[in-house]
């Protein structure tokens, strides 16, 4: 009975809030002479805050045109904006900035959706040692990270030197597919000096010495934790693939929207995702 009452209250609250929100929007439009999209664009600075409010407004609209505008093809954005202006009875000559603001927001919203699809496609594509392009990228990764050490053979224990688990890296890409390789190579090519430093640190960890003074300040439980609080090295490539997994999950969950809507003035691209990695 308690469960039923709780469910009943939640349903009532939902419909009450839904109706109340519609009423508030109607009153705001009558008082300001502007629709919700206009109020957001004119009262919110460009960036994640504006784009996310626009996205929420479009998705929550009862109009099919507005609901589907967040998933149109990039080439159809201009026409979609014209249709929205017609639907809302907004004169583009009197409100020229609204069209510009909506276009920027829709480019980001649609771009994020397309970026997620592109990243997913790369993640699902397995590494193929018979594919010359895949092999070329892998060998390029070695040359970037080990410029003074020629690879003796394609199948070699040397791969462990840059953090792969065995003598053939293709087995380590199973979880993230080509996406893992794309990100590792992007890092090694674009920030070579930092990548080499990170690789060096992974092979030669720096230990933190615990002094007698430190010992006197630790409880027994803290000391047990501190005993394992020293760097023990890590596998560069494997950690890179795991970070790719983290970045992928943040992207798919929508957690990266705020970041991308702030850094990408238009549609976020694969390069933005790789920079985040």
Automatic annotation (TrEMBL):
It holds the Pfam family ELMO_CED12. It comes from the Eukaryota. One of its GO terms (molecular function) is GTPase activator activity. Residues 133-277 form the ELMO domain. This is ELMO domain-containing protein 1 isoform X4. It comes from Alligator sinensis. The gene is ELMOD1.
């Amino acid at each position: 009975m308690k469960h039923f009452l709780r469910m009943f209250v939640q349903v009532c609250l939902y419909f009450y809030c839904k109706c109340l929100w519609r009423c508030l929007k109607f009153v705001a439009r009558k008082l300001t002479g502007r629709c919700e999209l206009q109020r957001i664009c004119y009262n919110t600075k460009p960036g994640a805050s504006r784009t996310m409010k626009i996205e929420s407004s479009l998705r929550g609209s009862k109009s099919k045109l507005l609901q589907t505008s967040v998933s149109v093809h990039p080439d159809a954005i201009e026409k979609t904006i014209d249709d929205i202006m017609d639907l809302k009875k907004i004169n583009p000559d009197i409100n020229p900035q609204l069209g510009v603001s909506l276009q920027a927001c829709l480019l980001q919203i649609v771009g994020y959706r397309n970026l997620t699809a592109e990243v997913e496609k790369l993640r699902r594509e397995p590494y193929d040692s018979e594919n010359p392009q895949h092999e070329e990228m892998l060998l390029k990764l070695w040359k970037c990270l080990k410029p003074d050490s020629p690879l003796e053979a394609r199948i070699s224990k040397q791969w462990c030197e840059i953090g792969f688990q065995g003598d053939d890296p293709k087995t380590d890409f199973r979880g993230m597919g080509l996406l893992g390789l794309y990100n590792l190579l992007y890092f090694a090519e674009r920030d070579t000096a930092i990548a080499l430093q990170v690789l060096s640190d992974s092979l030669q960890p720096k230990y933190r010495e615990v002094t007698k003074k430190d010992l006197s300040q630790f409880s027994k439980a803290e000391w047990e934790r501190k005993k394992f609080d020293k760097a023990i090295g890590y596998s560069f490539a494997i950690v890179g693939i795991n970070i790719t997994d983290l970045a992928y999950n943040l992207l798919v969950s929508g957690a990266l929207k705020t970041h991308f809507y702030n850094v990408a003035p238009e549609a976020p691209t694969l390069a933005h995702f790789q920079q985040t990695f």
